[in-house]
Amino acid sequence: MLLGWTAKRTGKNLEHHVQMPKALSASSRDSSQVTISDTEVGEAKRDMYRKFDWPPHYRNLPYVIAIAIGGDTIVFSKFTRAKLFIDELSLNLSSVKDRIRCVQAAINIGRYCKWAFKEVGPEPFYPFGKTIDRQPTDSDVWGTRLTINYSSVLKVFYSMKSSEIQRVHNFYATNRDIPFLEKALRNEIKGNNLHLELIPVGLPFSPTNLATLQVAMYCFLHALAKVHQNGWSVIDIRRPNTIEHDGCYYIIDAGEFAQQHNYQIHSEILKRFDTNSVLSRPARDIYMVKEMMKEVEEIWRYNPHAIDFMRELDECYQKDSLESILKCEFLIAPAEQRIKD
After folding, report:
1. Which burial class, exposed, middle or buried, applies to 336 when counting CB atoms under 10 A from its CB (0-12, 13-18, 19+)?
2. What is the pLDDT of residue 115?
3. 3-state SS, residue 163
4. 66 sits in which H/E element
5. CA distances from 271 to 221, 264, 284 (A)
6. Cis link prior to 200 (omega < 30° from 0)?
7. How would you label 193-215 residue by residue, b for 16+ Cβ within 10 Å and e otherwise?
8. Is-contact 122 144, C-beta < 8 A?
9. Cβ pair 81, 62 in contact under 8 A
10. Using a CB cutoff of 8 Å and minimum separation of 24, what contacts does 52-56 make?
11. What whole-number distance in Å separates Cα of residue 227 and Cα of residue 220?
12. Strand, helix or coil at 30?
């Protein structure tokens, strides 16, 4: 059971604001006494270890407050990003003294959560479970019903032409198993509506250092190269349409503008970005990647590998292909990919 969160972003510890129980790191019972309750608590902790996934909108939190309950035993602990239980407080609710301490701990954890939310705040706050309706406004925008859940995004498209429904459906079907590209777990056409369930859920890509940028570009270019091989371009590649999740970076087709090669780009607004790319081509996506790099030039301006990378991107744009750049020294695979390799 997850009860609250905290962070150290501001450089302040919780103890500066809330006095936690002094026995936080010690059990109130003899550790040699093993009961059925202990076994149940252990199983609850193992279950949390297996199933818990870090909230994507709280990426800076070093730990969450976890509660494991078994029989008369309740254990409060910090559960870290490395999935370690630390500073445990174990209480036996058959004891009057421990019942009082349990109430004190719960009150302090409530204050803890309130302080963390005020000082840190979610970034950004996702209204999990809330459904948002967007009405169609022009020829480029169709109606959508969006629900962001903890682990996936549910989208229902309505008021769409049958050709548009088929285009979006085909994009996700054709490019379903490409690493670092948003994936559709569900992709169903029902009458004039399209139902999608998309993963992963993450935070918008916002590089703060060179290493982060290098890993992100590795992910983006390898995803795009596969999409291009399948005969598609994503078209609308901008930082708001890229996300971070568990140390990897993903491209999402947030506006559903992806198009097969040699077809007209159907958004008049998107045509203005690269006036040389009237049709959907790999060069169009490469141009947008170059623009993304220019937005964060202060991060890589003096790095020789980055400068070479930008030159190679220019060559790729002229060749209409990313094939020659995938082994560029500037690109760094995410840790997950390095382990596989």
Report:
1. exposed
2. 72
3. helix
4. strand 63-70
5. 21, 9, 10
6. yes
7. ebbbbbebbbbebebeebebbbb
8. no
9. yes
10. 52/2, 52/79, 52/83, 53/150, 53/151, 54/81, 54/246, 55/5, 55/122, 55/150, 56/126, 56/200, 56/201, 56/202, 56/203, 56/245
11. 11
12. coil
Give the residue carrying structure tokens 């406004």.
Answer: 137
Q: Which two tokens stand for residue 301?
A: 């301006």
- Give the sheet arrangement for strand 183-190, strand by strand: 131-134, 143-148, 153-158, 193-199, 183-190
What average pLDDT values come out for the chain (341 residues) when binned by 10 residues? 33 35 37 55 81 68 83 88 85 92 89 72 63 69 81 87 91 96 96 92 87 97 98 94 92 92 85 83 96 95 97 97 97 77 52
The alpha carbon dihedral of 274, 278, 280, 283 has a sign of: negative
Amino acid at 189: I
For residue 316 the two structure tokens come to 């790729």
Intra-chain end-to-end CA distance of the chain, in Å: 36
- Among 295, 145, 122, 126, smallest CA distance to 213 is for 295
Distance between CA atoms of residues 77 and 75, nearest Å: 6
The CATH number of the structural domain formed by 131-340 is: 1.10.510.10
Give the torsion sign (CA, 188, 189, 190, 196).
Answer: positive
Read off the tokens for 39: 């076994």
At residue 76, the 3 state secondary structure works out as strand
* Cα angle, residue 294 at apex, residues 250 and 268 outer, rounded to 5°: 75
Query: Which ranges of 30-95 does DSSP label H, i.e. alpha helix?
Result: 36-51
Q: Is 144 helix (H, G, I), strand (E, B) or coil?
A: strand
User: What's the gap between Cα 109 and its chain centre?
Assistant: 27
Omega before residue 124 within 30° of 0, cis: yes
Cβ-contact 213, 330 below 8 angstroms: no
d(CA 39, CA 31): 13
Calpha distance 278→270 (Å, rounded): 10
Q: What residue segments make up the domains of the chain, in order of their start?
A: 2-119, 131-340
